[in-house]
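INFO worker-7 received task bundle
INFO bundle size: 2
INFO processing item 0
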Amino acid sequence: MFTGLIEATGTLIHTERHGPDSRMVIRAVFESGALVLGESIAVDGACLTVASFSGEVFSADVSAETLSRTTLGRKPSGSRVNLERALRLGDRLGGHLVAGHVDGLARFRDRRPDGRSLRLYFDAPAELARYIVEKGSVAVNGISLTINGVSATGFDVNIIPHTASETNIGDLRPGDEVNIETDIIGKYVEKLMGPWSGTTPKGEEEGRIDLDFLKKHGFT
């Protein structure tokens, strides 16, 4: 698990293709000390495993599934990537619980000044937008952010100067894609409520909590 508080930005040295998979080689400096072989690290929000490291350089394998869900496979050498090491028990949870399991992609649309901060606007597909709620949390390229507003086509967030300078979100240009992880709580609630909401998978018993159900069982 992660918190969405970026520890460092790294530079993608190169990506090695291995059939449907790949291996990313990244240069980064962590103030928290040397990496450990096999530890988890979020790269632009995607949880990867450190496969090897030497000094300031480490490599991580990227599966075909991760390549299909994220922007990692399309990043050119020299790209700046957000990095966060896994949360340790006892650490402060300054952001929100982030699994490092990217749900999909959103597209950066626009930025506007908002005092000393920036308001960034993103377009999101319907399958992601359903879990994005005003004042909820979202991870954008691994950064824990509060959702300021939601529209029919996307959402917007506020970026303080520190976040803009210390992560790659300040480098975005209109049309760029970003990795999105929505709040895991909403997905669990939807799954658990499925049998009562009419969204039960085909072949399973269906039911729906509505006014008729509540009246029938004496709740209204």
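INFO item 0 finished
INFO processing item 1
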Amino acid sequence: MPSKVKKNILRLKESATLAINEKSKKLIEKGKKIHRFGFGQSPFQIPEKIVQTLKSNAHKKEYLPIQGLPELRNKISKYLYNKTGVNYAKENILITPGSKEAMLLMHVAFNGEILTPAPSWVSYEPQAQIGLNKVHWLETSQVNNWFPTAKELENKLKKIGKKKNLILILNSPNNPSGAICNNLKDLAFVAKKYKLIVLSDEIYTDLSFDNNYKSISEFYPESTFISGGLSKWCGAGGWRLGFLAVPKGLKEFMNSLKSLASESYSTVNTPTQFAAVEAYDGDYEDYKLKVRSILKAVGTYVFNNLKSNKVLINPPQGAFYLMPEFRNKKFKTSAQLCDAILNDTGVALLPGSDFGFNPKKMLVRLSYTDFDGVEFYKNVSDYKSISEKMVKRYAPNVVEGTTKLSNWAKNL
């Protein structure tokens, strides 16, 4: 009897990041001490004024336009222009229930194939599968900060062939590496030469530790989509508010995205859209500075105390991730490595194979957000001088987990 589920959907599995979060919760419920380094979620409180705006609009129950609240789209348009110098008019912005949904709609609408660097976020490939789009992986190296060089990109494109519609997905700061792409101009040159569409996933850009928003759209605005939202910089992951900015010359694509939105989620919930106006219009630079400084201090602590001749790791540059490589011959796959670490130390990590790497590469993603962000934030008076002592006091589970992981690695 034939399956009642389509083959491309049967191949899907539960998102690795969500699965490790639920697994960690279950282990904690059983009384096991777990260091939750597997799930990437902002630990900080949403700014109070944004919360109050949500509350004051909670009574609004009317459906908003499919594309989103015009005032919100206008604020996001101004936000992007101030950050990138590129004009994405409000007519070319779609409000979505999280940036994840924005990217899924792109995959469903797009007629072509996907090119994504390894490492990449766990959902890029599964979403391409849903959209029946073939995925090409472009493996990167630690030497080049986990991003492709322009030459590597061009060589890959030559192998794929010129007669295909292609989307290149770039994510900087990157999930899972926490690295920032420093050769966007060179990559944009190649993308333009081969007439690629670029999806620039900028969900972490406001968490760049150098406080320098970088977007490939500055060099290739005519074919660069930008996705973003409130989940990372604002700590509002559960609010599910994202956006997709579409290049002005791709009206057909924009119309198709709107049609898909109308036939799936209809519109993003009304109170959150009004609250998002405040988020994109208000002055939250001090909030972002303090959040970035805390994350940088915690990430730097993990980096300094984990790096060794057994653990190769690059310093943190943004978001809240590090990507250590364990030098060992005990394990055959990174998934086996992570299982052993969880069983032996209680430290939950995600294997590099979930992010596009060869399973034999002993790479893992480490998220250093297992601390009380509200308490830490409240006790920082000077964001320029967050000491190691403060990290130990306000991020004890991260400190303890790092110690356990470091000691475990010494026996490899």
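INFO item 1 finished
INFO post-check item 1: The two ends are 49 Å apart (CA to CA).
INFO post-check item 1: The domain at 50-281 is CATH 3.40.640.10 (Aspartate Aminotransferase; domain 2).
INFO worker-7 idle
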